[in-house]
Design brief:
The chain is α+β, with helices and mostly antiparallel strands. The protein contains ten helices and four strands.
Length: 220
């Protein structure tokens, strides 16, 4: 179920709520700030794609594979989840070894500014894990190095096509919609709500198109 927006927006306009400032580090859900250089990658609404292709250091493929396995196991631990909450802009990410263990791909989808996205990752436990992963690739300077953004840009290949199924929804808005949905579903199961539906005093409200649509969405 989608939470209803307080005002009408054009498709693709960022959705920003005051509470987002408490969940994110420095990320915004709007377009990149003008002071930042233009970065490669395609966008669809508030969502942008980021894909880098790197060369694996000779003899490092097995070590990289082991570190990826450890990273995958740790990706669901409390520290990693909290880091993703702090960053607050990552939709998804994937790591792939290919070309007979000679090349490595990292791809993700995120909200807002490319520069802020990179900065925020470097400040969390995820950044330390990225350091370990990318240390197996040629030329990687480290996430804390001033030149790391230039390195990422040199390895990045923009997608030919990038389409999001929800171009007007940021990660923050999706989380909010999920919380609202869970709260409403819990409300539907209460005796008080069922009693309210049966109360003739509420008949006028229950007959409104807005309430009927809400119930239809809840039942879908």
């Amino acid at each position: 179920m989608r939470a209803m927006a307080p005002h009408v927006r054009a498709l693709g306009d960022p959705r920003t709520d005051p509470w987002q400032e408490n969940l994110t580090m420095t990320a915004t859900t709007g377009a990149p700030q003008s002071a930042q250089p233009e970065r490669p990658g395609r966008s669809d609404g508030v969502c942008s794609e980021f894909t880098v292709f790197t060369k694996i250091k000779p003899g490092h493929a097995d070590a990289l594979r082991e570190d990826l396995a450890a990273f995958a196991e740790a990706a669901t631990d409390a520290k990693a989840r909290e880091a993703l909450r702090q960053i607050g802009t990552l939709h998804d990410a994937r790591h792939v070894i290919f070309d007979n263990d000679t090349r490595f791909m990292f791809a993700s989808v995120f909200d807002g500014s490319w520069d802020t996205y990179i900065d925020d990752f470097a400040k969390t436990v995820v950044g330390a894990r990225f350091d370990k992963i990318f240390s197996h690739t040629e030329g990687f300077p480290g996430v804390a190095d001033p030149g790391v953004k230039d390195w990422f840009v040199s390895q990045q290949e923009p997608a030919g096509v990038f389409v999001s199924s929800y171009p007007d929804l940021t990660v923050q808005q999706i989380w909010k919609d999920q919380r609202v949905d869970e709260a409403f579903e819990a409300l539907l199961d209460t005796a008080e709500f069922r009693a309210a539906l049966d109360n003739p005093a509420n008949a006028e409200l229950l007959a409104t198109p807005a309430f009927q649509k809400l119930m239809e969405e809840a039942a879908a």
